[in-house]
Amino acid sequence: MKQVIISRYGPPEVLKIRENQIPEPGDHEVLIRVHYAGINFSEIMARMKLYPGAPKPPTTLGSEASGIIEKVGSSVTGFKPGDKVMSFCRFGSYSTHICVSEQMVFALPERFTLDQGAAFPLVYVTAFMMIYDLGNIQPGEAVLIHGAGGAVGTAAIQLIKHAGAGIIGTSSGWKHEKLKKMGVKYCIDYRKENVYDKVMEFTQGTGVDLIIDPLGGKSWKNGYRMLAPMGKLIVYGDQKIVSGFRKNPFVLLKELFTIPKFNPALMLGENKCVMGYHLGKLRNAEHKIQNAVDRLMKIVDTGKLNPVIDRIFHYTEAPECHRYIQERKNFGKVLLDFRKE
Ligand SMILES: NC(=O)c1ccc[n+]([C@@H]2O[C@H](COP(=O)([O-])OP(=O)(O)OC[C@H]3O[C@@H](n4cnc5c(N)ncnc54)[C@H](OP(=O)(O)O)[C@@H]3O)[C@@H](O)[C@H]2O)c1
Hints:
Layout: E1 2-6, E2 15-19, E3 29-38, H1 41-47, E4 59-60, E5 64-72, E6 84-88, E7 97-101, E8 105-107, H2 114-118, H3 121-134, E9 142-145, H4 151-163, E10 166-171, H5 176-182, E11 186-189, H6 195-202, E12 208-213, H7 217-225, E13 227-235, H8 249-258, H9 264-270, E14 272-276, H10 286-301, E15 309-314, H11 318-326, E16 333-337
Helix pairs in contact: 3-4, 3-10
The chain binds NADP nicotinamide-adenine-dinucleotide phosphate.
NADP nicotinamide-adenine-dinucleotide phosphate binds near residues 122, 123, 152, 171 and 237.
């Protein structure tokens, strides 16, 4: 079988192809012949040594995939060879074959193609748990999505629309037309416009009820100021530490110093809330993920969730694929195609 690995920390070109033995599934595992793997920003960070907790190179990577089950372990009851599935995976889905616990595998919804299946698990569960579980979204509320044109961003748009709330999105300017077509009411080009001023203008000075922010310290600090009473700021990434194609200690240090300190006593008086979310660190809370997936699948059944796929690269083009995302060229999800070895 073939795997894409991080051979050492560095620019996209450190991604290499490795030949390996096809693994045997354990008792509670299934072996999936991967068709597509979803690319996530965290893998770019892992490649640059900016993702705490990721395994050290040389290492496989990848958190989600879709494909067809080839073999099942002796205790597996929910799946059989030939089933089309989508799956979470811990640092290994950039591969033609993966073994994963049956708990991390889900039947591909009938209305999804296999490429949509690879664009679904991580980003939709992330967006769903932030918006519905932590964010407790209500119809008529106003939500600010940072990185609205990204993979999590486009998933969040569909979920917020489903909840009947209004959306303000930040992104590079060229994505605005597409965002408006998806239902974003107001778009902000953060490179040219003052995000705080625009949000206050769009909300007639009230601020927003919910912010989902993967950017970093300066934006989190600004976000807190933009919250309406009972507003919630959910931080779920620190993309600002990614600058250029290699780790830059000066950028990292500068970012660390911008991380705001929130004062609970002031939060009490202001009726504002700051929360963190990290799907990868939800160990021993798998039942909460499962619960979110069950509720998410009910929305899938309504036909309102359609993963936005920007581009599919063959797995041998993994370096080009990482570079493409880092150059901010994607609108929605980017995948690797593992169908042809
Ligand atoms: N906590 C969790 O459980 C969790 C789960 C999934 C994802 N995340 C985080 O959510 C964020 C979005 O992830 P994603 O996979 O959906 O990626 P993505 O949004 O597709 O990432 C690419 C886009 O991010 C924007 N961006 C902002 N800062 C950037 C930078 N320094 N370098 C390159 N692009 C930058 C660009 O859009 P614009 O040009 O439009 O700004 C770019 O097109 C990431 O920070 C990721 O780590 C967290």
